[in-house]
Write a structure and sequence with these properties.
This protein has 213 residues and is of the alpha/beta class. The protein contains five helices and seven strands. The chain has a single domain (6-191), classed as Rossmann fold, CATH 3.40.50. The relative contact order is 0.12.
């Protein structure tokens, strides 16, 4: 089975940040895949925040999906705006190419997951372009059975709207939004009014005796 390539890959990958991986050996393997193999994150300060869901997405697409095959993964909604997902968001990923066909936005579905969620449906190959079609899902599921509720019943409870997601830029930072935003980069009015206060580097624990005068 592992030698074959599939027409469809569907899954719910693990949602865990790199910093929570406790095994140093496994952490090195994961870091090598993230930075070296796929170039998902190159900045060290973002590496600790990198979520495994994004790595699983491109890894599964790379290893198990045929060209022009479809992948559908449940993902944390952080892929909309978090800096560690920038390369995934703009399709700047080494070794693999994909085009996002649709994003299902489940931010306003309750209860669902502990963090806002979405689902990404993409095809292997091609170029990632925007806008991308979005299904915006809203509604409240029954708390006693939302984990086992049949899809046909859920459809009767939830409201679905169709929209478009646009890729927006501020210099090199990006985010997805339901409207195209044009923001020119400029220095904040407050820039010249701030001064750095007392800083203790490296951070340490200080014991202080309060003396009454």
């Amino acid at each position: 089975m592992f030698e074959k390539m599939f027409d469809y890959v569907v899954g719910n990958p693990p949602w865990i940040a790199y910093r929570y991986i406790t095994n140093p050996e496994y952490q090195n393997i994961v870091k090598s895949l993230i930075a070296g193999t796929y170039g998902l994150v190159l900045d060290e300060h973002l590496m600790t925040h990198m979520e495994m869901a994004t790595l699983f997405f491109v890894r599964a697409l790379d290893l198990y999906l045929k060209d022009e095959g479809l992948i559908g993964f449940v993902m944390p909604r952080a892929i909309f705006s978090a800096d560690q997902h920038n390369n995934f968001r703009i399709g700047k990923v080494s070794k693999v190419k994909y085009k996002v066909n649709e994003i299902i936005d489940c931010e306003n579905v309750e209860p669902l997951f502990y963090v806002p969620a979405c689902a990404v449906i993409a095809v292997k190959g091609g170029e990632l372009t925007y806008p991308v079609k979005a299904l915006i899902v809203r509604g409240k599921l029954p708390e006693d059975k939302y984990k086992i509720l049949p899809l046909i019943e859920a459809k009767n409870i939830l409201n679905v709207e169709i929209g478009n997601l646009y890729l927006n830029f501020i210099v090199t930072r990006t985010w997805l939004d339901y409207k195209q935003v044009s923001i020119s980069a400029s220095r904040s009015y407050y820039y010249d009014h701030f001064r750095q206060g007392a800083t203790v580097v490296p951070q340490a624990c200080w014991f202080i005796d309060v003396i009454d005068v």
